[in-house]
Amino acid sequence: MRTDSPQTIFRKDYTPPSYLVETVELGFDLDPARTIVANRITLRHNPDSPSAGKGGADLVLHGEDIELVALRMNGVALNPGQYILGTNTLTIKKAPLNVVLEIETICVPENNTTLSGLYVSNGSFYTQCEAEGFRRITYFPDRPDVMAKYTVMLRADKEKYPVLLSNGNLVEEGDLDDGRHYAKWEDPFKKPSYLFALVAAKLVCQEEKFKLADGRDVLLQVWVEEGNLDKTDYAMQSLKNSIRWDEERWGLELDLDRFMIVAVGDFNMGAMENKGLNIFNTKFVLANPATATDVDYAGIEAVVGHEYFHNWTGNRVTCRDWFQLSLKEGLTVFRDQEFSADMIGTASGRAVTRIDQVRTLRQAQFPEDSGPMAHPVRPDSFVEINNFYTVTVYEKGAEVVRMYQTLLGREGFRKGMDLYFQRHDGQAVTCDDFRAAMESANGRDLTQFERWYSQAGTPILTAKGEYDADARRYVLTLAQRCPPTPGQPEKQPFHIPVAVGLLGPLGADLPLNQAGDTTVVLELTEAEQTFTFDGIGAVPVPSLLRDFSAPVILEYPYSDEDLLHLFRHDSDPVNRWEAGQRLAMSRLLKLTAAAQRGEELELDYTFIAAQRALLLDDTLDAAFREQALILPSESVIADQMEVVDPHAIHTARQFMRRTIASVLRTELLNAYAANQITGPYSPDAVSAGKRGLKNLALAYLLAGKDGHAVNMARRQFEEATNMTDRAAALTALIHSGADASEQLQAFYDQFKGEALVVDKWFAMQASAPTTDVAHVRELMGHPAFTLKTPNRARSLLFSFANANPSQFHAHDGSGYEFWAEHVIKLDALNPQVASRFARSMDRWRRYPPALQEHMRRALEKVAGATKLSNDVMEVVSKALAN
Ligand code: TRP
Ligand code: ZN
């Protein structure tokens, strides 16, 4: 049981470590029930630390859930009187300035269900040390500003664990007695403890020699369980593309002779960038056409890239403290986004990736920014750091990095990056250091820009345009405000880059200056500013915030005519899509209101006609047409409402889909036929776009309750030659309410040996609007279900709570009871996963009083549970706070 109450940690309290670590020598005797860790660290007092006292300083090491069996300092065994063993610390008072510590501890990997530290998954050993997992392996100053060189000796049974891996280079291996063997690894680079990793497992690998730009040959390996070697090609290809891209776009080269990726089925997050030994959730490695969808392939490319790019943005230059997390995560997400966009290459392909990013922000980050867990990109405080691996730190952080590039230009931004590496290679630094590099390299003052790091909340940008025909002048007034967030009642103006274009009456871009530019980036720094455009011959329609140039909410009094004009003609594809979303949203909100009043629902033909024209426009990529035809999700609609009515929203959106389907039946059938692909499967963007549009058409036709469509879907399900088409057909069937019991069974029987496909099987059922709480409970009883594997728990529980709002928010509160029960159950196994699930209730105050009452009770039930982790406690107590 927890003895101390959870402590809040503040950024302002940062102090440099009292001791620095020079070298770490780790010895592991691996045994699932009793692993012995021998740790020899060389430390020296940090002259920059304020702790220097007379007669030495206090040496504090972290430790958690490990048993101390021996401790020696400078060759002499310490007895318990010479150190203090706290709950999670080991302190040696007034230690000498130079210290060699030898620490022996024991841990029990097979009982470690938290998946943090050293744990067992399917009989093999893996580690996860970010953020504070290393202290669950050995006593250590477990903070990212303590960087050291590591040597690692692994010993384990040779038959059960034939593969022994750690960071860096393999320097020695051989056999021991009793059927055991060993491997010694050395990492030539200094690193923080969170980048330590080991794997001792029964695995096989796909490997390849690869030539770097400087001519060096490196060894690339992708390690997986036996039977999965037919699913490693795309990860390997993505790794090679990542290495090439980092060289070409940023001049950054791989610094090791060997780079390994290991896939593991039990993993809390997507993947981890351990130096030279990236450990991945299987979801972001394993793919072949039969088991993985286009979305899965895109995820693999992005995550392989992301982890690889961390080698420079995260590992070579790391974070001073965890408040700086976005320094590495925001920057690395930006890099992986650019990588994925460059891999597609075409302008419209890039736009589709950008639209996806905007969607994620609206779907997840804006709600976070206006909820009880709102925090700045660089938080000021936290209870549990694991709760701050958020869409704000990652995705909004990436937007902040993107804004530097928008303000400084691509070249200026590159100069800033070069200077950042020049100044800070091998260091643990801050977001301010990054900003300073951008400033110095470009001779610009970015003081105000810091507010993007310090102020939480989504700014609201309002725009007003006035046209003076006589003066041929257009005056644009931009204003900004930002709503209060917890702890930040008042906000100062942000430095916002607003990319603007003006469309003439025929839809063409008007030249905006002497140079003839058709897009300019305005810099809004005040609460309100006006910008003047001369030589404008006719009243224009403004295209604002092109390419989503800042993570803000834009308010402009667009008429339907304006939006239709932009939807048809905007040269900026992101704003073209955006105009369509605005047209749809205004109707969805009206329909929702009508549904609440029990009125008959009606959809205007203007909107459908615009959708029709877009669907028929063969000059547009299928991928873009698909994006433009996807209606705002139920949760994005909810975010627009003062008081959220999930049931009315569902009714309204379903009505809209049904109406579009019946009016555009012929066009949708044609789109379905025209976007069939023959020949072998390829996950490239063009093919994926066609499949996407085709499958969207199918889903629409099914939503239209067309009997013919049911047969089409069943046939596609049976004849599909890839998972994208098979899963899309099955999902569309289930979600339309058609009888798909036979197909569900067949799908399960065919893929029951593929864990990632079984996850899909659970997820598509959990998110079906026909699946209620009782059905979810029934699915939990399925032999394939387990709460212990995060992917499986997410596939059922998270899909239900986050992707099935009309059932989760059942009037009787049964969805919330289910939630409370399982937050508590999950918490006993894995606090990180439980805490993420707990966040499904963040926005509870936005619901009608009757639902709120049920939600409050569920939250209080969790808050009052015994033995609650700090992770979940932080989330529910912030949700309940005023
Ligand atoms: N640094 C990892 C990434 O973004 C994130 C991560 C992986 C992580 N595993 C984790 C964060 C466990 C916290 C806990 O690539
Ligand atoms: Zn990352």
TrEMBL record:
<keyword id="KW-0645">Protease</keyword>
<dbReference type="Pfam" id="PF01433">
    <property type="entry name" value="Peptidase_M1"/>
</dbReference>
<dbReference type="InterPro" id="IPR035414">
    <property type="entry name" value="Peptidase_M1_pepN_Ig-like"/>
</dbReference>
<dbReference type="InterPro" id="IPR045357">
    <property type="entry name" value="Aminopeptidase_N-like_N"/>
</dbReference>
<dbReference type="Pfam" id="PF17900">
    <property type="entry name" value="Peptidase_M1_N"/>
</dbReference>
<keyword id="KW-0862">Zinc</keyword>
<feature type="domain" description="Peptidase M1 alanyl aminopeptidase C-terminal">
    <location>
        <begin position="560"/>
        <end position="881"/>
    </location>
</feature>
<dbReference type="InterPro" id="IPR027268">
    <property type="entry name" value="Peptidase_M4/M1_CTD_sf"/>
</dbReference>
<dbReference type="GO" id="GO:0008270">
    <property type="term" value="F:zinc ion binding"/>
</dbReference>
<comment type="similarity">
    <text>Belongs to the peptidase M1 family.</text>
</comment>
<protein>
    <recommendedName>
        <fullName>Aminopeptidase N</fullName>
        <ecNumber>3.4.11.2</ecNumber>
    </recommendedName>
</protein>
<dbReference type="InterPro" id="IPR012779">
    <property type="entry name" value="Peptidase_M1_pepN"/>
</dbReference>
<dbReference type="GO" id="GO:0006508">
    <property type="term" value="P:proteolysis"/>
</dbReference>
<dbReference type="Pfam" id="PF11940">
    <property type="entry name" value="DUF3458"/>
</dbReference>
<dbReference type="InterPro" id="IPR014782">
    <property type="entry name" value="Peptidase_M1_dom"/>
</dbReference>
<comment type="function">
    <text>Aminopeptidase N is involved in the degradation of intracellular peptides generated by protein breakdown during normal growth as well as in response to nutrient starvation.</text>
</comment>
<feature type="domain" description="Peptidase M1 membrane alanine aminopeptidase">
    <location>
        <begin position="234"/>
        <end position="452"/>
    </location>
</feature>
<dbReference type="InterPro" id="IPR042097">
    <property type="entry name" value="Aminopeptidase_N-like_N_sf"/>
</dbReference>
<feature type="domain" description="Peptidase M1 alanyl aminopeptidase Ig-like fold">
    <location>
        <begin position="457"/>
        <end position="556"/>
    </location>
</feature>
<dbReference type="InterPro" id="IPR024601">
    <property type="entry name" value="Peptidase_M1_pepN_C"/>
</dbReference>
<dbReference type="InterPro" id="IPR038438">
    <property type="entry name" value="PepN_Ig-like_sf"/>
</dbReference>
<keyword id="KW-0482">Metalloprotease</keyword>
<dbReference type="GO" id="GO:0008237">
    <property type="term" value="F:metallopeptidase activity"/>
</dbReference>
<dbReference type="InterPro" id="IPR037144">
    <property type="entry name" value="Peptidase_M1_pepN_C_sf"/>
</dbReference>
<dbReference type="InterPro" id="IPR001930">
    <property type="entry name" value="Peptidase_M1"/>
</dbReference>
<feature type="domain" description="Aminopeptidase N-like N-terminal">
    <location>
        <begin position="107"/>
        <end position="195"/>
    </location>
</feature>
<keyword id="KW-0031">Aminopeptidase</keyword>
<keyword id="KW-0479">Metal-binding</keyword>
<keyword id="KW-0378">Hydrolase</keyword>
<dbReference type="Pfam" id="PF17432">
    <property type="entry name" value="DUF3458_C"/>
</dbReference>
<dbReference type="GO" id="GO:0016285">
    <property type="term" value="F:alanyl aminopeptidase activity"/>
</dbReference>
